Amino acid sequence: MNAPGAASRREIPRHGVSQLGFLCVAGLLFVACVAATVVWCMSMSAMGETPMPGAWGVSAAWKPMCGRTWASVAASFVGMWVVMMVAMMMPSLVPALWRYRQAVAARAGGMRLGRLTLLVGVGYFLVWTGSGLIAFGAGAVLTTLELRLPAVARAVPLTAGLVVLGAGVLQFTRWKARCLARCHEAPGCGTALSGGMASAWRYGLRLGLRCSYACVGLTATLLVLGVMDLRVMTGVTAAMTAERLAPGGERAARCVGVALIALAVLLIARLR
Predict the structure, then answer these.
(1) Could you report the per-residue pLDDT of 97-155, keeping only the tens digit for each?
(2) What H or E segment, with its residue span, contains residue 181?
(3) How far apart are CA 177 and CA 185, in angstroms?
(4) Which helix (H) or strand (E) holds 16?
(5) CA 203, CA 98: separation in Å to the nearest integer?
(6) In angstroms, rounded to a whole number, what is the distance separating the alpha carbons of residues 213 and 132?
(7) How far is 166 from 147, CA to CA, in rounded Å?
């Protein structure tokens, strides 16, 4: 007859193997999504941009080309938006999922823990899918106006600079600090984690909403500076990861704010 201590010792290695498997799957998913995002950006760049009044261009991602419909363009954009968000958010999401797994490990083991983690991830990225739909809708409307009204097109470079400026100022607000504080909360703070499927789903949705709120300024910056630009994407990813994972997240957010304001000043100054 096995002693209770021996049984508990067997559970520790199993949990360790489960955590290692989680890290491997997350790593492979991250690499695959990064590769797909790079290929997508390169293909969009190869298609070129439509020159617009004001010395800038509209990316092919925002309008139908070669006989494509708006529905197909929207589906393509949202699909790649989700892939891109997985690549951008995974570095800061993995620690949150790790904490979740630690919190529910005692109530869910083995394959069930994996399914719960997957459900949290699906809920999280469902929120980002919704943000992609909103972004495409707004971008499609704006693109239509830009193509029909030259005055709107000429105002875009200045508007982009002002959006980046606003995103920089937002980094210093109490609202931003509260959003980051919620991102740093341990699983179970303000929510019940029962280890059930419904609980995992709600936690994923809540985590996605908190993350999208905290990243709204940086997401807007990505959209106005070029969602197809790998340099912008890399910079925004680094900023999001730093402010959500650094010990002094609020301090990191302020540093990002300074960088955004400086960039906005440069963008606006170049218009003169």
Answers:
(1) 998 888 887 666 555 788 889 999 999 999 999 999 999 999 888 888 888 888 888 88
(2) helix 174-183
(3) 13
(4) helix 4-47
(5) 13
(6) 14
(7) 26
Q: pTM value?
A: 0.85
| Residue 174 CB-half CA count within 13 A | 0
Q: Which of 267, 152, 163 is nearest to 222 (CA)?
A: 163
Which residues fall within 8 angstroms of residue 59, CB to CB, at 6 or more apart?
44, 49, 226, 227, 228
Kindly give the interhelix angle for 230-245 and 197-214, rounded to the nearest 10 degrees: 110
Q: How many domains does the chain have?
A: 1
Instruction: Give CA separation, 213 vs 29, 36, 110, in Å.
Output: 24, 26, 33
Long-range contacts of 62-69 (CB under 8 A, 24+ apart): 62/136, 62/139, 62/140, 62/143, 63/140, 63/143, 63/147
Encoding tokens for residue 37?
Answer: 């995002």
What's the one-letter identity of residue 75?
A
| Residue type present at position 154 | R
Domain span at residue 72 reads 4-269
